[in-house]
Amino acid sequence: MTAGPAIVVRDLRKSYGKVEAVKGVGFEVAPGEVFGFLGPNGAGKTTTISMLCTLVNPTGGTAEVAGHDVVRERDEVRRNIGLVFQDPTLDGYLSAEQNLRFHAELYGVPKSVMGDRIRQVMEMVALWDRKDAKVMTFSGGMKRRLEIARGLLHSPRVLFLDEPTVGLDPQTRAAIWGYINELRRLEDITIFMTTHYMDEAEYCDRIAIIDHGEIVVVDSPEALKAGVGEDRVQIHTADDARAIAALRDRFGLEAAVRDGAVTFSVASGEEFVPRLFAELGMPIRAVSVARPSLDDVFMSYTGSTIRDAEAGGAGNAWMRAMARR
Ligand SMILES: Nc1ncnc2c1ncn2[C@@H]1O[C@H](COP(=O)(O)OP(=O)(O)OP(=O)(O)O)[C@@H](O)[C@H]1O
C-alpha cells in the first residue's frame, strides 16, 4: 500500500499547437480507489491519462504516480503502472499465453513466479481455457480481457484503463466490470479509468467530470447525484395539457411531455407524490419517481447531455481536429 496518494496532479496542461487539450487540471487519487475520468469525446481524457502514463509530455504543471514524477522519474512510473489503452497492442500471431509471457519478460517478472502469475490473471478474466489459441482468433471482447490480464501481470500499483469497454456489447461490458470489481477485491491496486459511459461511471468510487480540457467537478457518484437535488417525476393522465396546466397553477412546477409522459423535476419526489394525488384535481393513471442520474449531473454542470456534447463528433479526435481547421 502506498503511503501517500496514488496519483497527485497539479495544474497539469497540454497544448498541441494552438489547441489547449488540457487546461490546468488538478486532483488526487487515494490508494485503492477506482477513479473515473468522465467526459465527452475530445474533452481531454486521453491526453490526461497519456501524461500520467508518461506517454505524452505535459506542457505545464506536475503529476506524480505511485510517488514518482511523470517527467523526471519516467522509468519508475512505468514500472509501477499497468496500461490498457484503446488501440490493441497484442500480437495476433502469438497465443494468448505467449503474449503474456513476452510482456512478463519485458517487465522482469521473476521466472519462478511467472507461470503462476500468468495463470492467475488469465483465470481472472476467464481466458485460461483459451491460453493456447492465437489471439487473432479472439473476439474484440476477449482481446480487451486479455489486455486487462496483461496490464496486471507485473502487479502494478496503478492500473490505467482508457475507455476499457468502448465498442463492446453490453454483456461483455458487464463482464469487464465484473473483472474490475473482482480485481478491487483481490489486488491492492488503484484504478484510473476514462469513460464516456455514464452508467459505468456509477461503479467508480469517485469521478471527475472533464469538459473542454477543464475539470468541472470531482466527487462520488452518490454525492454528485445528491447535489442535483431534484428527482424526476413522470405521470400518465388522460389529458396531458390539462395536467401540465394544473402542475403550473397548483404547484408552480414547469412540466413537459417526455417519452410519452408528463415529466417534471421536484425535490423529494416520493414525498411529493401523495400531495400530487390529493391536489392535482384530476385522475392520475400511473406515476414514477426517479433519482437524478449521472446524465442529470453532467447536464447540470455542462449544460448539455453527454450525447448532445458528442453529437457532430466523428468519434476520432484527429478527424475532429482536422475538421475544425
Ligand atoms: N496528437 C494530437 N495533436 C493535435 N491535437 C490533439 C492531439 N491529441 C489530441 N488532440 C486534441 O486535444 C483535444 C483533447 O483530445 P483527447 O483525445 O484527449 O480527448 P478525449 O476526451 O480522450 O476524447 P475521446 O473520447 O475521443 O478519446 C481534442 O481537441 C483533440 O483534437
UniProtKB/TrEMBL annotation:
<dbReference type="GO" id="GO:1900753">
    <property type="term" value="P:doxorubicin transport"/>
</dbReference>
<dbReference type="GO" id="GO:0043215">
    <property type="term" value="P:daunorubicin transport"/>
</dbReference>
<keyword id="KW-0067">ATP-binding</keyword>
<dbReference type="GO" id="GO:0005524">
    <property type="term" value="F:ATP binding"/>
</dbReference>
<keyword id="KW-0813">Transport</keyword>
<dbReference type="Pfam" id="PF00005">
    <property type="entry name" value="ABC_tran"/>
</dbReference>
<dbReference type="GO" id="GO:0016887">
    <property type="term" value="F:ATP hydrolysis activity"/>
</dbReference>
<dbReference type="InterPro" id="IPR025302">
    <property type="entry name" value="DrrA1/2-like_C"/>
</dbReference>
<keyword id="KW-1003">Cell membrane</keyword>
<dbReference type="GO" id="GO:0005886">
    <property type="term" value="C:plasma membrane"/>
</dbReference>
<feature type="domain" description="ABC transporter">
    <location>
        <begin position="7"/>
        <end position="237"/>
    </location>
</feature>
<dbReference type="InterPro" id="IPR003593">
    <property type="entry name" value="AAA+_ATPase"/>
</dbReference>
<keyword id="KW-0472">Membrane</keyword>
<dbReference type="Pfam" id="PF13732">
    <property type="entry name" value="DrrA1-3_C"/>
</dbReference>
<dbReference type="GO" id="GO:0046677">
    <property type="term" value="P:response to antibiotic"/>
</dbReference>
<dbReference type="InterPro" id="IPR005894">
    <property type="entry name" value="DrrA"/>
</dbReference>
<protein>
    <submittedName>
        <fullName>ABC-2 type transport system ATP-binding protein</fullName>
    </submittedName>
</protein>
<keyword id="KW-0547">Nucleotide-binding</keyword>
<comment type="similarity">
    <text>Belongs to the ABC transporter superfamily. Drug exporter-1 (DrugE1) (TC 3.A.1.105) family.</text>
</comment>
<dbReference type="InterPro" id="IPR027417">
    <property type="entry name" value="P-loop_NTPase"/>
</dbReference>
<dbReference type="InterPro" id="IPR017871">
    <property type="entry name" value="ABC_transporter-like_CS"/>
</dbReference>
<keyword id="KW-1278">Translocase</keyword>
<keyword id="KW-0046">Antibiotic resistance</keyword>
<dbReference type="InterPro" id="IPR003439">
    <property type="entry name" value="ABC_transporter-like_ATP-bd"/>
</dbReference>
